Here is the input.
Amino acid sequence: MEDALRKTMTAVSGRQLDDALSDLGWLDMLDEMPDTAIPLVFRLLGETGAHAPVLNDVVLRAAGRDGGGIVPLPFAGGSWVVWERTDEATSALSDDLPIHRVSRADPVPLGAGRHALGWWLVGTSRAMLALARQHALDRVQFGRAVASFQAIRHKLAETLVAVEGAEAVLLAAAAEPDDLSFLLAKAAAGNAALTAARHCQQVLGGIGFTAEHELHRHVKRALLLDGMLGSTRELTREAGARLRAKGSAPRLAQL
Here is the structure.
Protein backbone atom coordinates (compact mmCIF):
# COMPACT_ATOMS: atom_id res chain seq x y z
CA MET A 1 0.00 0.00 0.00
CA GLU A 2 2.76 2.46 0.87
CA ASP A 3 4.52 1.90 -2.45
CA ALA A 4 1.26 2.43 -4.36
CA LEU A 5 0.50 5.62 -2.45
CA ARG A 6 4.02 6.99 -2.92
CA LYS A 7 3.89 6.25 -6.65
CA THR A 8 0.52 8.00 -6.93
CA MET A 9 1.66 11.06 -4.97
CA THR A 10 4.79 11.32 -7.07
CA ALA A 11 2.72 11.33 -10.26
CA VAL A 12 -0.18 13.66 -9.38
CA SER A 13 -1.19 16.31 -6.87
CA GLY A 14 -4.12 18.56 -6.00
CA ARG A 15 -7.54 17.52 -7.23
CA GLN A 16 -6.10 14.66 -9.28
CA LEU A 17 -4.52 13.23 -6.15
CA ASP A 18 -7.74 13.79 -4.22
CA ASP A 19 -9.60 11.71 -6.80
CA ALA A 20 -6.86 9.07 -6.90
CA LEU A 21 -6.92 8.68 -3.12
CA SER A 22 -10.68 8.30 -3.25
CA ASP A 23 -10.29 5.54 -5.85
CA LEU A 24 -7.73 3.82 -3.61
CA GLY A 25 -10.28 3.72 -0.77
CA TRP A 26 -9.00 6.61 1.36
CA LEU A 27 -12.34 7.24 3.08
CA ASP A 28 -12.80 3.54 3.84
CA MET A 29 -9.28 3.42 5.28
CA LEU A 30 -10.05 6.49 7.38
CA ASP A 31 -13.14 4.77 8.78
CA GLU A 32 -11.73 1.29 9.29
CA MET A 33 -8.09 1.88 10.28
CA PRO A 34 -7.47 5.57 11.01
CA ASP A 35 -4.43 4.82 13.18
CA THR A 36 -2.71 3.41 10.09
CA ALA A 37 -4.26 5.53 7.34
CA ILE A 38 -3.59 8.97 8.83
CA PRO A 39 0.15 8.55 9.57
CA LEU A 40 0.76 6.81 6.25
CA VAL A 41 -1.07 9.19 3.94
CA PHE A 42 -0.04 12.44 5.60
CA ARG A 43 3.61 11.44 6.10
CA LEU A 44 3.84 10.57 2.41
CA LEU A 45 2.25 13.89 1.46
CA GLY A 46 5.11 15.57 3.27
CA GLU A 47 7.86 13.35 1.90
CA THR A 48 6.72 13.63 -1.71
CA GLY A 49 5.77 17.31 -1.64
CA ALA A 50 2.32 16.51 -3.03
CA HIS A 51 -0.87 18.04 -1.68
CA ALA A 52 -4.55 17.14 -1.47
CA PRO A 53 -7.44 18.56 0.58
CA VAL A 54 -7.82 15.37 2.65
CA LEU A 55 -7.43 17.26 5.94
CA ASN A 56 -11.09 18.12 5.39
CA ASP A 57 -11.99 14.43 5.55
CA VAL A 58 -10.17 13.87 8.84
CA VAL A 59 -11.89 16.82 10.53
CA LEU A 60 -15.31 15.99 9.06
CA ARG A 61 -15.08 12.36 10.19
CA ALA A 62 -14.04 13.47 13.69
CA ALA A 63 -17.15 15.66 13.76
CA GLY A 64 -19.32 12.69 12.77
CA ARG A 65 -19.99 14.02 9.28
CA ASP A 66 -19.46 12.55 5.82
CA GLY A 67 -16.11 12.98 4.13
CA GLY A 68 -15.60 14.35 0.67
CA GLY A 69 -16.64 17.91 1.52
CA ILE A 70 -14.94 20.98 2.96
CA VAL A 71 -15.03 22.60 6.37
CA PRO A 72 -13.73 25.95 7.69
CA LEU A 73 -10.53 25.45 9.68
CA PRO A 74 -8.84 27.73 12.22
CA PHE A 75 -5.55 29.28 11.18
CA ALA A 76 -2.82 31.13 13.07
CA GLY A 77 -3.65 34.58 14.33
CA GLY A 78 -7.31 33.85 15.03
CA SER A 79 -8.31 33.64 11.36
CA TRP A 80 -10.20 30.89 9.52
CA VAL A 81 -9.56 29.30 6.13
CA VAL A 82 -11.14 26.84 3.72
CA TRP A 83 -9.11 24.28 1.81
CA GLU A 84 -11.09 23.92 -1.41
CA ARG A 85 -11.29 20.69 -3.41
CA THR A 86 -10.23 22.40 -6.65
CA ASP A 87 -6.99 23.34 -8.41
CA GLU A 88 -7.67 27.07 -8.29
CA ALA A 89 -4.76 28.27 -6.18
CA THR A 90 -4.94 31.55 -4.29
CA SER A 91 -2.06 33.85 -3.41
CA ALA A 92 -3.65 34.83 -0.10
CA LEU A 93 -1.74 32.17 1.84
CA SER A 94 -0.01 30.04 -0.77
CA ASP A 95 0.68 30.33 -4.47
CA ASP A 96 0.08 26.64 -5.13
CA LEU A 97 -2.75 25.63 -2.78
CA PRO A 98 -6.51 26.35 -3.06
CA ILE A 99 -6.77 27.87 0.42
CA HIS A 100 -8.53 31.14 1.15
CA ARG A 101 -9.61 33.04 4.22
CA VAL A 102 -13.22 33.02 5.41
CA SER A 103 -15.15 34.66 8.22
CA ARG A 104 -15.12 33.02 11.62
CA ALA A 105 -16.96 29.69 11.67
CA ASP A 106 -18.35 27.32 14.29
CA PRO A 107 -15.73 25.34 16.24
CA VAL A 108 -14.90 21.84 15.00
CA PRO A 109 -13.03 18.96 16.69
CA LEU A 110 -9.33 19.60 16.13
CA GLY A 111 -7.54 16.63 17.73
CA ALA A 112 -7.58 14.27 14.75
CA GLY A 113 -6.75 17.10 12.35
CA ARG A 114 -3.75 18.13 14.44
CA HIS A 115 -2.62 14.51 14.50
CA ALA A 116 -2.79 14.39 10.69
CA LEU A 117 -0.98 17.71 10.25
CA GLY A 118 1.70 16.52 12.66
CA TRP A 119 2.51 13.61 10.36
CA TRP A 120 2.44 15.88 7.31
CA LEU A 121 4.95 18.20 9.02
CA VAL A 122 7.17 15.25 9.96
CA GLY A 123 7.14 14.04 6.35
CA THR A 124 7.99 17.54 5.12
CA SER A 125 10.81 17.75 7.66
CA ARG A 126 12.27 14.46 6.47
CA ALA A 127 12.12 15.67 2.87
CA MET A 128 14.06 18.82 3.78
CA LEU A 129 16.59 16.81 5.77
CA ALA A 130 17.15 14.43 2.86
CA LEU A 131 17.78 17.34 0.48
CA ALA A 132 20.22 19.00 2.87
CA ARG A 133 22.05 15.74 3.58
CA GLN A 134 22.48 15.02 -0.13
CA HIS A 135 23.74 18.54 -0.78
CA ALA A 136 26.25 18.19 2.07
CA LEU A 137 27.56 14.98 0.54
CA ASP A 138 27.76 16.40 -2.98
CA ARG A 139 29.06 19.91 -2.27
CA VAL A 140 32.85 20.19 -2.10
CA GLN A 141 34.73 23.10 -0.52
CA PHE A 142 38.46 23.35 0.18
CA GLY A 143 38.85 19.89 -1.33
CA ARG A 144 36.40 18.23 1.09
CA ALA A 145 32.69 17.43 1.09
CA VAL A 146 30.96 19.95 3.35
CA ALA A 147 29.39 16.98 5.15
CA SER A 148 32.78 16.55 6.84
CA PHE A 149 32.54 19.99 8.49
CA GLN A 150 31.50 19.86 12.12
CA ALA A 151 29.09 22.81 11.86
CA ILE A 152 27.21 21.10 9.02
CA ARG A 153 27.03 17.85 10.95
CA HIS A 154 25.61 19.66 13.97
CA LYS A 155 22.85 21.28 11.89
CA LEU A 156 21.85 17.96 10.35
CA ALA A 157 22.03 16.13 13.69
CA GLU A 158 19.90 18.74 15.46
CA THR A 159 17.33 18.48 12.69
CA LEU A 160 17.22 14.68 12.93
CA VAL A 161 16.79 14.81 16.72
CA ALA A 162 13.91 17.28 16.38
CA VAL A 163 12.16 15.16 13.73
CA GLU A 164 12.62 11.87 15.58
CA GLY A 165 11.37 13.50 18.77
CA ALA A 166 8.27 14.85 17.03
CA GLU A 167 7.52 11.44 15.57
CA ALA A 168 7.82 9.87 19.02
CA VAL A 169 5.35 12.41 20.43
CA LEU A 170 2.90 11.67 17.60
CA LEU A 171 3.11 7.93 18.31
CA ALA A 172 2.61 8.52 22.03
CA ALA A 173 -0.41 10.73 21.36
CA ALA A 174 -1.98 8.09 19.12
CA ALA A 175 -1.47 5.44 21.83
CA GLU A 176 -3.39 7.49 24.40
CA PRO A 177 -5.43 9.95 22.32
CA ASP A 178 -6.90 13.08 23.84
CA ASP A 179 -7.09 16.72 22.85
CA LEU A 180 -4.04 17.82 24.87
CA SER A 181 -1.86 14.99 23.51
CA PHE A 182 -2.69 15.88 19.91
CA LEU A 183 -2.17 19.58 20.64
CA LEU A 184 1.33 18.89 21.99
CA ALA A 185 2.09 16.51 19.11
CA LYS A 186 1.17 19.14 16.53
CA ALA A 187 3.30 21.71 18.37
CA ALA A 188 6.27 19.32 18.46
CA ALA A 189 5.91 18.52 14.76
CA GLY A 190 5.63 22.20 13.89
CA ASN A 191 8.74 22.99 15.90
CA ALA A 192 10.61 20.17 14.15
CA ALA A 193 9.56 21.48 10.73
CA LEU A 194 10.62 25.03 11.55
CA THR A 195 13.94 23.71 12.87
CA ALA A 196 14.41 21.66 9.71
CA ALA A 197 13.59 24.63 7.48
CA ARG A 198 16.07 26.88 9.29
CA HIS A 199 18.95 24.40 9.54
CA CYS A 200 18.55 22.85 6.10
CA GLN A 201 18.40 26.24 4.44
CA GLN A 202 21.68 27.12 6.15
CA VAL A 203 23.28 23.84 5.08
CA LEU A 204 22.37 24.52 1.44
CA GLY A 205 23.68 28.07 1.66
CA GLY A 206 22.70 30.52 -1.07
CA ILE A 207 21.01 27.93 -3.26
CA GLY A 208 18.63 27.11 -0.40
CA PHE A 209 17.13 30.61 -0.65
CA THR A 210 16.34 30.43 -4.36
CA ALA A 211 13.52 28.99 -6.45
CA GLU A 212 16.08 26.96 -8.39
CA HIS A 213 16.26 24.35 -5.63
CA GLU A 214 13.41 22.15 -4.43
CA LEU A 215 13.93 23.08 -0.78
CA HIS A 216 11.96 26.33 -0.99
CA ARG A 217 8.73 24.42 -1.76
CA HIS A 218 9.06 22.36 1.40
CA VAL A 219 9.93 25.43 3.48
CA LYS A 220 6.82 27.28 2.29
CA ARG A 221 4.70 24.18 2.86
CA ALA A 222 6.06 23.81 6.40
CA LEU A 223 5.25 27.44 7.23
CA LEU A 224 1.71 27.05 5.94
CA LEU A 225 1.03 23.74 7.69
CA ASP A 226 2.43 25.09 10.95
CA GLY A 227 -0.27 27.76 10.91
CA MET A 228 -3.13 25.33 10.24
CA LEU A 229 -5.19 24.49 13.36
CA GLY A 230 -2.91 26.64 15.49
CA SER A 231 0.76 27.52 15.12
CA THR A 232 3.54 26.05 17.22
CA ARG A 233 3.78 29.22 19.30
CA GLU A 234 0.01 29.44 19.84
CA LEU A 235 -0.36 25.77 20.77
CA THR A 236 2.55 25.91 23.20
CA ARG A 237 0.97 28.88 24.95
CA GLU A 238 -2.43 27.18 24.99
CA ALA A 239 -0.94 24.04 26.53
CA GLY A 240 0.82 26.09 29.18
CA ALA A 241 -2.37 27.98 30.04
CA ARG A 242 -4.30 24.72 30.37
CA LEU A 243 -1.74 23.12 32.65
CA ARG A 244 -1.38 26.27 34.75
CA ALA A 245 -5.15 26.44 35.21
CA LYS A 246 -5.31 22.76 36.13
CA GLY A 247 -2.34 22.94 38.47
CA SER A 248 -0.79 19.68 37.29
CA ALA A 249 0.52 17.96 34.19
CA PRO A 250 -0.74 14.54 33.06
CA ARG A 251 1.58 11.68 32.18
CA LEU A 252 1.59 11.76 28.38
CA ALA A 253 3.75 8.67 27.83
CA GLN A 254 4.78 5.65 29.87
CA LEU A 255 8.58 5.73 30.01
